[in-house]
Design goal:
Layout lengths: L12 H11 L6 H23 L6 E5 L1 H4 L11 E5 L4 H20 L17 E3 H13 L3 H11 L2 E5 L1 H17 L2 H10 L23 E3 H20 L6 H9 L8 H19 L11 E3 L5 H30 L1
Parallel strand pairs: 2-3
Antiparallel strand pairs: 1-2, 1-4, 5-6
Length: 330
């Protein structure tokens, strides 16, 4: 449809954004939306690479966060990094400059800069294969909140351009360490288990009570993160290579211990993706605002179904917690 025919015509970041803005409202499916985002980001990549000239060695450019998990909303910020083959100052200088161009181009094309600087322009996220492996081992041996957060961010990485195997090999470093140090799973659990609840004990919505989002629920914190965090943790435990929450659920469901528990949650998460796209298409907010859903705009059936989706996310968190706690008690 609109993902292939246009690629050769637009070269500037401004033109890419113009195309994005003219087409994104036509999309009615979450998979189609994420394929569109991939296509746009690859177009930015092509334009940035043309400006930078031929790279000095092989590399992979990867996306993380919702982009890595193939779960982007209509408005999405940047989360990306680079791993390159050769170590040395010459290579580092090129790829940091390339990363800065990529971050600039994505911002110009409609993807806001990441507030946490999880971008290829940041040396933390732009390293050689050797340096990346060293950094991951350092994070795995530390106990700080930041090191755990960085590991979880990295685990959602997906190569968009270049050598996919570089990323897979780095993830094996994480898996191998967890096999030898299963207590890491409990540390990850403690890092992610506390999410904001949007449905109370009496099945009532718990919206924001003050500020510009009063009357709304934080659909990212209360809706998506319980599913994403729980399934990511199970994927870490079981050495699952898949990156999206849905594909991780499918892979885990092939294992007998999960086969009767995860399929219902998969259906609920698919509904959540649908609801987010449906309601976001009626909004024109910024990236920060779009995470909030005003429950006054929901009809009776939508309220009922959304409550069920949110409660299922809480149950999935509890289920995952019981598995990890059970593993530690053995």
């Amino acid at each position: 449809m609109l993902l292939h025919d246009w690629k050769c015509f637009f070269m500037s970041y401004t033109e890419i954004k113009q195309w994005r803005d003219s087409q994104i409202e036509k999309i009615n499916d979450s998979n189609e939306l994420n394929a569109f985002h991939d296509s746009l980001m690859k177009r930015v990549f092509d334009s940035a690479q043309k400006k930078m000239g031929r790279p000095p060695c092989n590399y992979a450019w990867f996306v993380m966060g919702s982009a890595g998990r193939y779960e982007q909303a209509i408005i999405s910020d940047q989360d990306h990094g680079i791993v390159y083959e050769q170590d040395g100052e010459e290579y580092a200088a090129y790829f940091i400059a390339f990363g800065k161009e990529l971050a600039f181009g994505l911002n110009e094309a409609g993807y806001p800069y990441c507030d946490g600087k999880v971008m290829s322009s940041n040396p933390v996220w732009c390293k050689s294969r050797v340096s990346w492996a060293q950094q991951l081992r350092g994070w795995l041996n530390e106990r700080s909140f930041e090191s755990l957060r960085y590991l979880l961010i990295f685990y959602d990485a997906r190569a968009l351009e270049g050598e996919r195997e570089y990323l897979l090999q780095l993830k094996e470093t994480v898996h191998d360490t967890i096999k030898n140090k299963p207590e890491l799973l409990e540390r990850f659990l403690e890092n992610t288990i506390h999410t904001k609840k949007a449905v109370g004990f009496f099945h009532q919505f718990l919206p924001e009570t003050h500020g510009s989002h009063a009357g709304s629920i934080d659909i990212k914190q209360s809706g998506f993160l319980p599913y994403v965090n729980a399934v990511r943790l199970l994927a870490l435990k079981e050495n699952v290579e898949e990156v999206s929450t849905l594909s991780r659920m499918e892979a885990l469901s092939q294992l007998p211990k999960y086969s009767h528990n995860l399929l219902a949650y998969k259906s609920e998460f698919e509904k959540l993706l649908h609801y987010r796209l449906l309601f976001h298409k009626t909004m024109k907010e910024s990236y920060d605002d779009i995470h909030y859903l005003n429950i006054k705009g929901l009809n009776k059936n939508e309220r009922k179904e959304l409550k069920q989706i949110l409660k299922s996310g809480q149950k999935l968190q509890e289920y995952t917690q019981s598995i990890i706690k059970g593993l530690m008690s053995k």
